[in-house]
């Protein structure tokens, strides 16, 4: 794939976003003046060493954390200006999030777990919308199973269905394949890829060059800044760039 021009409208825009923790001598700058545009319907992978700010970038962009300064736009909405209540509603209605740990409720079936965000929004889920989204992740036949009766990959697909049931504009994943074996991880990655191909914006943190190669664009973070990026890369190109970055840092 060649370098992809940003023709689609931006799904997410960060302008000079800084996030610091603590004060004075003990302060940590987790994000340092990050500016970034992510076009709608693209799949972005975020890579970088531990502590480089990947999770903070995701959390701020998803409205789970607030930057210390700078602006974050989701579509045309400025997250940084929102009250806690509006931010909570925005997270509920416009954002999906999957984590390394699947975070399913063990006593609920797959279908009940998937329906949960709709129930929390005060809606009575239609059977068909839960079934459709379980079908999208290939689990139509597992609707009545509890998490303990499902494999790790199936549990993560339930978590993915739960994140998608509200039809979020942006789907975030913080190492969503980190707890899966490589074959199962690839099934989840193929699903994320197909979501982006159908117009959903996907942003995922990963340490794995193979996982990142499913993305349209890979951002490399170091010390809270975006230091490098690749468009449409192969796993080999990503691994080579990671090695070059480590060597350059020595
Ligand atoms: P990554 O996900 O790339 O490993 P993080 O975004 O989790 O990195 O963290 C970036 C930096 O910010 C690290 O130095 C981390 O210790 C610090 N940090 C993250 N969250 C907090 C917090 N809640 N309080 C204090 N420091 C934090
Ligand atoms: Mg992290």
At CATH's second level, what is the architecture? Answer: 3-Layer(aba) Sandwich
- The general outline is globular
Total of helices: 8
CATH superfamily: P-loop containing nucleotide triphosphate hydrolases
Bin the strand percentage.
25-35%
> What percentage of residues falls in helices of 4 or more residues?
25-40%
CATH class: Alpha Beta
Number of strands: 10
Order of helical and strand elements: EEEHEEHEHHHEHEHEEH
How do the strands line up in the largest sheet? Answer: 6-7-8-3-9-10
CATH topology: Rossmann fold
What report would you give on this structure?
The protein is of the alpha/beta class. The protein is 35% helix and 26% strand. It has a single domain, classed as Rossmann fold, CATH 3.40.50.300. The protein is built from eight helices and ten strands.
Give me some keywords for this one:
250 residues; 6-stranded mixed β-sheet; 10 strands; 26% strand; globular; binds adenosine-5'-diphosphate; binds magnesium ion
Topology of helices and strands:
Layout: E1 10-21, E2 28-39, E3 43-47, H1 54-61, E4 69-74, E5 77-78, H2 84-94, E6 95-99, H3 110-120, H4 127-136, H5 152-164, E7 170-174, H6 182-197, E8 201-205, H7 209-212, E9 217-222, E10 225-231, H8 235-249
Parallel strand pairs: 3-8, 3-9, 6-7, 7-8
Antiparallel strand pairs: 1-2, 1-4, 4-5, 9-10
Helix pairs in contact: 3-4, 3-5, 4-5, 5-6
This protein binds adenosine-5'-diphosphate and magnesium ion.
Adenosine-5'-diphosphate (ADP) binds near residues 21, 28, 30, 51 and 54.
């Amino acid at each position: 794939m060649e370098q992809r021009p940003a023709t689609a409208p931006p799904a997410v825009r960060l302008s000079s976003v800084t996030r610091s923790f603590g004060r004075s001598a003990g302060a940590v700058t987790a994000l340092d003046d990050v500016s970034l545009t992510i076009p709608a319907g693209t799949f972005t992978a975020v890579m970088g060493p531990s502590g480089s700010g990947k999770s903070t970038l995701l959390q701020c962009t998803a409205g789970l954390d607030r930057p210390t300064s700078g602006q974050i736009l989701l579509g045309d909405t400025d997250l940084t200006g929102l009250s806690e209540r509006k931010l909570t509603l925005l997270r509920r209605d416009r954002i999906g999030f999957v984590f390394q740990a699947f975070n399913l409720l063990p006593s609920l079936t797959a279908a009940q777990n998937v329906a949960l965000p709709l129930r929390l929004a005060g809606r009575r889920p239609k059977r068909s919308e839960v079934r459709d989204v379980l079908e999208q992740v290939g689990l139509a036949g597992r609707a009545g199973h509890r998490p303990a009766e499902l494999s790790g990959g199936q549990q993560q697909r339930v978590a993915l269905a739960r994140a998608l049931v509200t039809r979020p504009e942006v789907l975030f994943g913080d190492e969503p394949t980190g707890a899966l074996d490589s074959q199962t991880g690839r099934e989840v990655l193929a699903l994320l890829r197909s979501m982006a191909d159908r117009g959903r914006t996907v942003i995922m943190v990963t340490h794995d060059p193979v996982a990142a190669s499913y993305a349209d664009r890979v951002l490399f973070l170091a010390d809270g800044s975006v230091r490098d990026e690749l468009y449409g890369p192969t796993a080999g190109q990503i691994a080579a760039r990671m090695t070059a970055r480590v060597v350059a840092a020595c």
